[in-house]
Every structure is written in structure tokens, then in C-alpha cells.
Amino acid sequence: xxxxxxxxxxxxxxxxxxxxxxxxxxxxxxxxxxxxxxxxxxxxxxxxxxxxxxxxxxxxxxxxxxxxxxxxxxxxxxxxxxxxxxxxxxxxxxxxxxxxxxxxxxxxxxxxxxxxxxxxxxxxxxxxxxxxxxxxxxxxxxxxxxxxxxxxxxxxxxxxxxxxxxxxxxxxxxxxxxxxxxxxxxxxxxxxxxxxxxxxxxxxxxxxxxxxxxxxxxxxxxxxxxxxxxxxxxxxxxxxxxxxxxxxxxxxxxxxxxxxxxxxxxxxxxxxxxxxxxxxxxxxxxxxxxxxxxxxxxxxxxxxxxxxxxxxxxxxxxxxxxxxxxxxxxxxxxxx
Length: 336
Known about the structure:
Layout: H1 15-21, E1 31-38, E2 44-45, E3 53-56, H2 59-70, E4 75-81, H3 100-112, E5 117-122, E6 136-139, E7 142-145, H4 147-164, E8 168-171, H5 178-188, E9 195-202, H6 209-214, H7 236-247, E10 251-255, H8 261-270, E11 276-280, H9 282-293, H10 299-313, E12 317-320, H11 323-331
Parallel strand pairs: 1-3, 1-4, 1-12, 4-5, 5-8, 8-9, 9-10, 10-11, 11-12
Antiparallel strand pairs: 2-3, 6-7
EC number: 4.2.1.24
InterPro entries: ALAD, ALAD_AS, Aldolase_TIM
Family: Belongs to the ALAD family.
């Protein structure tokens, strides 16, 4: 292929031809919108995540979901937030049927039925008094997470969420065997229809900072590098994904998304038949918001470019806090 016979610019002449030959199409149906639900009345603004709130389980939450649904966003993942005094070493509020997530699941399913798809994050960090994702044990003066005890609590939490109306449960703690333990528990209790979206390749990333403020889930000591993946590794993600699929995961995930586009592509190339989600996380969201507020970037164009890149890399679903805004912008057409 040589110039002047071949002129690629002919297919870029105007927006009509660019749209006609575009390889990637972004749509609101690609999005899963993360929502924080909380105890008590009144929504609370999240200072580290402009435009995001902790929502009380009630009319304000219903209205917020209704507005997103009107824009074409029909998939949501719920995260619970509880006061510090309700937290304990085993994160028991996470599997309390009267906790914020089960209450929100019941309310939203009663209100919207099958018009929406509800995912529930399964982890303990939002509910433990130490902020880690599992049961902390101390041996010889050194702390560690008891993997096998932790996944039993994940299964307990998943059952509560399934019973409350979750369409999918989403284990995010990166414990070995968590998908198998949850699948076994769901099936044993008749929840064969409830799916699992596994946080399969979740990295120990600094991009989670704003989320940890939003969910009050930062660890009180140490870090999560003994259970979340090393950012230097890409092919290790294939092992994690393979294990989760073998254990019964219906959807697998790479988290974060923007700094791990290579991992998204790698996973999709090796498992093209497996639905793949990617989490456009809080730090990625907050950086765009901060740069836009400072006037450094065009927020609409940059946001849609980032989300398009995530989908182009191979993601079938994108968890993103930008979902309602992006859906609104897409109604006006892409800016490319």
C-alpha cells in the first residue's frame, strides 16, 4: 500500500465518513455505574470525587437511578458505607440483611424491577474496623489475612445480596478461591440464576485513593499488596482470570482500567469468549475532574476518549463514575 494510490485521509474527510468506518462504538449500555449507599438521611457529597455522593436508601436514591436510567444507563453496582462505630474485625455489617446494600437492592428491585441490572460488590473493607478486605490474624507478631476464613464470609455476604435481589455479586477482595466458595454457596441455596462478576485482575494501585475516602475503607495499618496484584505483572492476570473462570465466574474484570489497557487487551486476546469488564476507577475519574476544573482539558472530549480507549482495548463493560455524564454527551454524538 503506497501513496498516492492509497490516501487514508479520504476516510477522515468529514464526520459522516469517520462515523461510518469507526472500529469502536461507545454506548451507554456499555456502562456500569458505581453508587455508594449509606446509613441515615440526606445525601453527602464526596470531596475526593466531584459530582459523586453517598446516597441514603430512599427517595433520593430512587430519583438518582431514575435519572441515569433515562439517559440509557441501566446497570449499577452498589457499595455500602457505614459509620465507624458499626465496624468490627469481621465486617459483620457487610452480611447484615439490614445493611445499606441489601436495603438498597430491595428498594431498587421493588421500584424498577427488570428495567435495571444490579451488581453488588462483595468485600469487607468498608465494614471492618481495620480497613482490610478480610479477617486479620496475627502470628509471631506479624499480621496476615486469613484467606480461607475470609472467603467463607464473602459467601455469606453474597447470599445476603442474592436474597435481597442482586442480579450479580462481585467479589473484589482478591482472595484465592473466592469465586468457587461463592458459587458453591449460591448454588446450595438455590441462587443458580445469580451471576458472579469477578474482580479477577485487581492491582494494588494508588488510583484507588479517592474511593477509599468515599467508602471510608482505607487500611488502618499496612497495605493490600499481599492480596492485590503487583502492578509490574501482566501475564499473571491470565492465571487469575483462568482460575476465576474455572471456578464459575460469569464475567471477569481488570481493575484499574486506564493504566492497564495492555492487560485488558491481553485478557481479551486469550479469552475472547469471556465477557470482560474494566473498572475506570476513582483516581482516574478524579484526575479528569481536577484537570477540567482547572481549565486544562475539555472534560467531555477527554472523558469520551478515555472510555473509548477502554472499550477499544477489549472491555465489553466499563464500570465508570462518568456514566451519567458520558451517556448524556453520547446523545449529542461523539466528538471525534
